[in-house]
Batch of 3 targets.
Target 1
Amino acid sequence: MTEKFLGNKSFRVADHTVSASCPSNIALIKYWGKYPGQIPANPSISYTLNHCKTNTTMEFCAGKPFGIQIFLAGKEEVKFAEKMEQYFKNIEPFLPWILQGNYTIHTENTFPHSSGIASSASGFGAVAKCLMELDEAFSDDVRTQDPVQKASFLARLGSGSACRSLYDGLVVWGETREVAGSSDLYAVRYPDSEIHEDFKNFNDWVLLIHEGEKSVSSTAGHGLMKTNPYAERRFQEAHENFAVIRQILKSGDMDGFMKLVEHEALTLHAMMMMSDPAFILMKSGTLQVIQKIWDFRKETGLSLFFTLDAGANVHLLFPENEHSDEIKSFINANLMQHTQNKGMVKDVMNF
Ligand code: DP6
């Protein structure tokens, strides 16, 4: 093995392998609309999931010409590698050694592709964590920033929502006066002492209503907000909703929580319906499930509600408590039939 120099550090020209795992997240107040430099148009808050993760191994051969090869679940992905190369070039100002070597990346998700669970969030989260491990070995700079915060900062530049996946529990991205320390540049944990116990043990069961490709990518969707006549009002409302959710989280107001979270999901879809071109991302199964959730709630008074991302699949949210068995039976008996292939991904958030 030969000694080479990168920055001020000498290192062996050998494979340097790092691994990381990062979960996905589900937003309660949604990020939809952004400014250049991956700056969100409004603050967002999400739950980080427990089981839906991306596991990534990155082999870095320092001193070799820059290039990236990616294998997703063992299959080489050339297009994905091109995107990753562009991403690495974009973040070079923050990791000056990053283009001085060659990468082989193996990555896999613990959840199905096209499930409506954000693999870009867990994927960029895992890549950012790997890069921070390499940074430990190759950077000559004295650390001035917390490494998790820097990983969140880097993940954001890959995919906005990814920056929230670096922390457990409830996580905020985007500056809001409601959350001390919140920033447009990275995510922060929502303060634990401000969260009622009832919100700390929650289920997220994702009904796979439609498993095909999404009709609009998030990037294109964010772009549509630039010309949406309702955009400014929406951004303002998201800010207002932070004041509302803060009270809800503190007091344990479950009814308020359900109302706000569903309103956010429907607003996201309404925004897309009012875009030019317009998109309807719900399928008939999505609407049928929503109606059944509302009927169930009216009949039983139990806390089952939903959120949606930019697709047709329904995230069923409900607290884990003495009523959850009844809710689970209802889902299996009445909602599963609306899935395309009996597909459902079960996750939990407990912290
Ligand atoms: C609807 O983070 O996927 O899931 O920054 O362009 O990668 P890019 O977009 P992305 O958008 C997520 C949008 C959302 C809402 C949310 O997660 O807040």
Target 2
Amino acid sequence: MHAGQCHRPSRPPLSRDMEQVMKRLNLGTDITTGLENREFAMVYQPIVRISNGSIVGFEALMRWNHPEYGFVPPDKFIPVAEEMLSITKLTQFALSEACEALQKFRGEIAQSDELYVSVNISGVDIGQTDFPNFLDHVLDQNGLDQRHLRLELTETALVPASDIASANLQRLQEQGFKIAVDDFGTGYSNLAYLKHLPLTVLKIDRAFAGDAHENAVSKRIVRMLVTLGDELGVDIVAEGLETQRSADALRDLGCLFAQGYHYYKPMPANKALDALNSGRQCSDVA
Ligand code: C2E
Ligand code: CA
Ligand code: CA
């Protein structure tokens, strides 16, 4: 060391765990600035009627184009946003964008009254006092009503973690909101929550729906879930159908609705509108 040079004790290297924590913290901060900088966008995956392929609705999915890391998948940033509580802002963004897109589709497509958009909601959102008010506000702003918006929650998120969450779920029920159970069959083994909620849809997870044509266990599970859906009087949507064979298998098992790459990949709103236009023509002809 040269004379006069200030000696700083060198920092001990970060442990792998600590590195992960720092990365998550950075990502958490980036979410807030990313929202301000319009780095987030919604894409829409059509949900179709299996019998004729016509589009009945869309699932809204979030995309993040990070200035440094590029595309960050939602599987990576949603859990961080949930931990940092920035999820509320992301969900508000998703709801606003999705309702605006749906209203645009409805303006341009004849006989689109039943068309809906389905938005992923986190368990953290359900625990926020203001959540039902925000839903009212976003529907109002876009001239929509409860029929046009489905809220997708996983089984874990549907088991209320607080009194506020319980009260909110009850209020959503009273207001007639449509709730879809996402990834159905993968999470909670206690199905008691099914009794108390205004469930409209069970979405069968890709883990079963995707290979029911070639896996005997998946096929049995799908059959059981379809029967359960019938008993409860709710729609069943199969997720992650990638081939004609898997679509045929789900149709033969009595499932009416599906989404997956076999039909459409998630796409920006303008492409979704094109799909809606050409899809309508196909089903009109059929
Ligand atoms: P999810 O709600 O189960 O969404 C379905 C995921 O499966 C999406 O992945 C979709 O792009 C993908 N997918 C659809 N069809 C197929 C297929 O045929 N094959 C395969 N391999 N995949 C298919 P994505 O967009 O990466 O989203 C992953 C998860 O991130 C979502 O799973 C959801 O849990 C979460 N997520 C996405 N957007 C949002 C959002 O706006 N809010 C919240 N809270 N979570 C979101
Ligand atoms: Ca979903
Ligand atoms: Ca799902």
Target 3
Amino acid sequence: MTTKSYSGRKIRKIIEKTLDAKRFEHTLGVSYTAAALAMKYEENVNKAEIAGLLHDCAKCIDNDKKISMCLKYNISITETEYKNPFLLHAKLGSFLAMKKYGVNDKDIINAILNHTTGRPDMSLLEKIIFVSDYIEPNRSQAPNLSLIRRIAFEDINQALLMILEDTLKYLQTMPCEIDPMTQKTYDYYKKEYA
Ligand code: DGI
Ligand code: FE
Ligand code: FE
């Protein structure tokens, strides 16, 4: 893989071809929402836009291929990820952001890497991407969505905690496995902000 650095416009064009239409719409929604939150919280707007555009860049790769790519590029796979390969789109996405899209900003790479499970002590950019992923305009399913959308622009940490709480509640009703990091992130922010 070659490493070239691309502008937001170029990334948008490439991403449109690698994602299905719905995922592309979601991606644009996350990118614009992240840019708006960056304005509100004085984060770098361009970095938020790029991180938003790339956060799901590995989402439309088949699960088998996600695993084979991780093996090929020496990306470690946890037991939970083996059982829920969709989780790998975050790790693989951050790898592709570096190697395919030439992103060398560590904060952007981390924002992509941690966008699904979060992590304790996230940077402002990581929080912005995590929250934008949940509230972008094309989302409609989550409970408390209009409240969380408003809170996101008032107190991002409170919004983060509400999202983590609702996500865990939702996952507990599902027959799927909860990644230890999702739980760890929730425990950390519950202690920090509740
Ligand atoms: O890729 P997106 O759909 O835009 O968003 P995402 O990467 O945050 O993935 C969202 C899904 O991930 C959502 O249905 C909740 C789920 N999720 C978050 N943490 C975990 C999880 N799923 C499992 N199995 N385990 C987790 O710990
Ligand atoms: Fe995702
Ligand atoms: Fe997403």
